Automatic annotation (TrEMBL):
Lineage, top ranks: Bacteria, Bacillati, Chloroflexota, Anaerolineae, Anaerolineales
Keyword NADP among UniProt keywords: yes
GO biological process, one term: dTDP-rhamnose biosynthetic process
The enzyme's E.C. designation: 1.1.1.133
A Pfam short name: RmlD_sub_bind
Protein name per UniProt: dTDP-4-dehydrorhamnose reductase
Purpose of the protein: Catalyzes the reduction of dTDP-6-deoxy-L-lyxo-4-hexulose to yield dTDP-L-rhamnose.
Keywords for the protein's UniProt record, in alphabetical order: NADP, Oxidoreductase
Length: 296
């Protein structure tokens, strides 16, 4: 049954979508869609394509992810992160189809000092976070078989992700100033995709029943937490071409020194023990994952 189910992956080029396109393959007939076939700003067309494919499972890896730009493009951000998602969730309800939706640590305001659990109250500080929270609520209000997976600080080792940007700065600048008052859970997109796929394999092809039985919000991020500064220092330490680095010093800075259009939560470490309890799977420590991601 597993190999014959249609799985529609929305977004196959983003950090997570790229990995999911590969990891979902053993779980069914994967139909991976991206621009120009699908556009989340045109929900009617998107829904008619999804309808024609009759998926047993929809995995949504599309999102408006530009946190700063979202402040000046709120309608576009809402359309992609919430309004179209609501229609997908309604489709999932009509067609008895499982829905996996990805959300973010930025639904929290960061005022807590212990890792956030799924029971903690969201309170986003910026428009991106508000749109993602509204997307979560739309999924939970409509889809009878859904997982809302909140992740954090994703990197992919592809294109211009955070790790690559740090490596590039290290080739150009002798001194890096990095904030030490933002704490989060760095997460390698490859391992996130793998753990989602391993959890889905437990459905043995009956995605609707399994996801309905395990329905809800889950935190799923690299184990532990680090400041941006500690993350950058680890990237530089693990850099396989360290001899190319020009950087001699990494200095701590404060978020307030780098004003950005969107306010960011300062502490968003995620407690992922619920996912481990339910599925018996956990992501490794963030620095262990980073070491694997940076191996040549
Ligand atoms: N990145 C992070 O640090 C982070 C942290 C926490 C949670 N998350 C969540 O994790 C999920 C995956 O994030 P990611 O880092 O993989 O994001 P990403 O690399 O930005 O990928 C998102 C994908 O969605 C596509 N997209 C945007 N607008 C679209 C539209 N109108 N129609 C169709 N496709 C569209 C993007 O295409 P274009 O690039 O061509 O626009 C991109 O391929 C998202 O739900 C995100 O909110 C991310």
């Amino acid at each position: 049954m597993a190999a014959s189910a249609n799985i529609v992956l929305l977004g196959k080029i983003g950090q997570l979508g790229w990995e999911l396109h590969r990891d979902l393959q053993p779980l069914g007939r994967v139909i991976a869609l991206d621009y120009p076939q699908i556009d989340f700003t045109r929900p009617a067309e998107l829904l008619s394509i999804v309808e024609s494919l009759q998926p047993a499972l929809i995995v949504n890896a599309v999102a408006y992810t530009n946190v700063d730009k979202a402040e000046s493009e709120p309608e576009l951000c809402d359309q992609i992160n919430c309004l179209t998602v609501e229609q997908l969730a309604q489709h999932a309800a009509r067609r008895r189809c499982g829905l996996i939706h990805i959300s973010t640590d930025y639904v929290f305001d960061g005022s807590q000092s212990r890792p956030y659990t799924e029971e903690d109250q969201p309170h986003p500080l910026n428009h991106y976070g508000r749109s993602k929270l509204a997307g979560e609520q739309a999924v939970l209000a409509n889809a009878p078989a859904c997982w809302v997976l909140r992740t954090a600080w994703l990197y992919s080792r592809r294109a211009n992700d955070f790790v690559q940007r740090v490596l590039t700065w290290s080739r150009q600048q002798e001194i890096l100033k990095i904030v030490d008052d933002q704490i989060g859970s760095p997460t390698w997109a490859r391992l996130l995709s793998q753990i989602i796929s391993l959890a889905l394999a437990q459905a043995r092809g009956d995605y609707f029943e399994f996801i309905q039985a395990t329905r809800g919000v889950y935190h799923l991020a690299g184990d532990g937490a680090a400041s941006r500064l500690a993350w950058v220092e680890k990237i530089l330490e693990l850099d396989p071409a360290r001899h190319e680095q020009k950087t001699r010093q990494v200095l701590p800075a404060k978020t307030a020194e780098f004003p950005t259009p969107a306010q960011r939560p300062l502490f968003t470490a995620l407690d992922c023990s619920k996912f481990e309890r339910v599925f018996g799977l956990r992501l490794p420590a963030w620095d262990q994952a980073l070491a694997l991601a940076m191996e040549k």
